[in-house]
Amino acid sequence: MTLTHSETTIPQKTTEARPVDVAEWVNEMAALTSPDRVVWCEGSTSEADELISTMLASGTLTQLNPELRPKSYLARSAPSDVARVESRTFICSLDPDDAGPTNNWQDPSEMRTTLRGLAKDSMRGRTLYVVPFAMGPLGSPLSKLGVQITDSPYVALSLQMMVRVSGDVLSMIRSGASWVKCFHSVGAPLNDGDVDVAWPCNETKYISHFPENLEIWSYGSAYGGNALLPKKAFALRIASVIARKEGWLAEHMLLVKVTSPEGKSYTLAAAFPSACGKTNFAMMRPSLPGWRVETLGDDIAWLRPGRDGKLRAINPEAGFFGVAPGTSQATNPSAMEMLWGNTIFTNTALTSEGDVWWEGMTKEAPEGLTTWQGEPHDKTSGQPAAHPNARFAVGLSQCPTLADEWDDPEGVVVDAIIFGGRRSTTVPLVSEALNWNHGVFLGATIASERTAAAEGTLGEVRRDPFAMLPFLGYNMGDYFAHWLEMGDTLRVTGRPPRIFQVNWFRRDANGEFIWPGFGDNSRVIEWIVDRLEGRVAARPTAIGWTPQTINLEGLQLGEDALQALLEIDPAAIARDLDDAEEFLGTLGSRLPAEIGRQLNQTRERLCR
Ligand code: OXD
Ligand code: MN
Predict the structure, then answer these.
(1) Domain check: are 38 and 113 in the same one?
(2) Within-domain flag for 439
(3) Which of 196, 224, 247 is the last residue of a domain?
(4) Between 20 and 30 A from 32 (CA), which of 178, 277, 359, 490?
(5) pTM of the full predicted structure?
(6) Which parts of 9-127 fold into alpha helices (H)?
(7) Distance from C-alpha of 58 to C-alpha of 184, rounded to nearest angstrom
(8) Would you say residue 165 lies in a domain?
(9) Residue bearing the CA closest to ligand 1, atom 1
(10) Are 375 and 385 a contacting pair, CB within 8 Å?
């Protein structure tokens, strides 16, 4: 999609083209929320133009210097609306045990009463946009449909960048396809005479999911996963519930196609908790000669056994909502290229030339910056100029490393699954699971140090199974059982993908990262591919197979450092298992016995 600024109005299709159930829902929501007008979107360029005009006029968007960053805009959020709010995210299943102890549960009928009360007249003075979208290629057996109602033009425009917004979705719903209802209001009605603010939102926030009704209600926030409902709320929380019923997996995973110097390609799906470098991995430029990494997705993958019995994956999204700080020519040159234009930035700093800047883009902050809060930046203050969770929203089609298969309705065959976390100690650079069930145990016990992508104390280690802790729509114990069953299903028709665990973030005694990461992670990919091909032997350890060595050619890294990266410290692993056991214990009787068995077997191997 191309963003331009003009004076067109969004053309409205005839009402007969609209599915009755969608129209009824929209009418009901409009009657509840009392917007000034209702606009049906279909993802056109003229529609984007209109949304941009509206937001330039209201001050929500600032146009960047077209000579430096064509067709690009900066939004500044309210200081209180800068990240996902997990504490205000609810799974409202009928039975609290179906949400499980890792989710905030509330009774669905009580939650509906609360939300209806908040939503009453919440869109007064605003426009209600109806945004039909597909997750995945339209018409693919792996895709799903949804409709988001929103009173935020910023959200309506961002959805155009991030998912497939199309009027054809309405035709498919009219022909009987099921769809997910996504209601969103910023909760900031305008009464006569009120002057709007650039980033309307409400201090009261709810991101509520009704898994039995395939319905999402979001109130009070316009930021990221709180408000762009197809992403975390639909493609992970609601989709995980649908996936369990239908026998597939909705995962917080990047998806890449890797080609070896021999010209053979492999697909890797990798789950990492938020802000562990998934986007950088997805767009990696390998430092190892002859290797190529192409992008299929950077955040979410839907995995399903295909007609051939193999595990196949699609990226349900069509764009990136990436973390800007830390992105640079050194860490992710492809992203820097991709962001040449046609991009919406949120909460970055603004340069005196009218371009964006964020911490890590260059070593030194330029003079004359305006901070994400619109203030002159004082370099001596120690405060960042961009918010640590500042983002870019851009279509996948702009990605210079996009793989041709990204839009394949059949999906791509997954060769290996990788789990990772941000761990200063304990977890080695890479290891391979002994088998599928052991791999599920590794996924179930991922832990990571907290970053800025969600509220909470930075640096604190938390268990984040499968990197899905904030994103699972049902009981975590049932989810582990579902993963184990998927292994059984895949074994009937062939061989399930091999499973690996990685950790780029191990630190030395001085607190410095030992592993260079980024393009050098291709060295770990090489080991993984060598394992898939049966080309290298590995060392048996308590936690699985680890490398005898890693290709360090051309890298300033000594053998000692490699040993430190691969070290398995039995005492540290034992402590980690105790911590994992404590977490797993919170799942009570819903924890599959097999996970406990894997834990015990790891302990036994540790004593050998
Ligand atoms: C994200 C996240 O925004 O994981 O992708 O928090
Ligand atoms: Mn994510």
Answers:
(1) yes
(2) yes
(3) 247
(4) 178
(5) 0.95
(6) 20-33, 45-58, 96-99, 108-119
(7) 20
(8) yes
(9) 274
(10) no
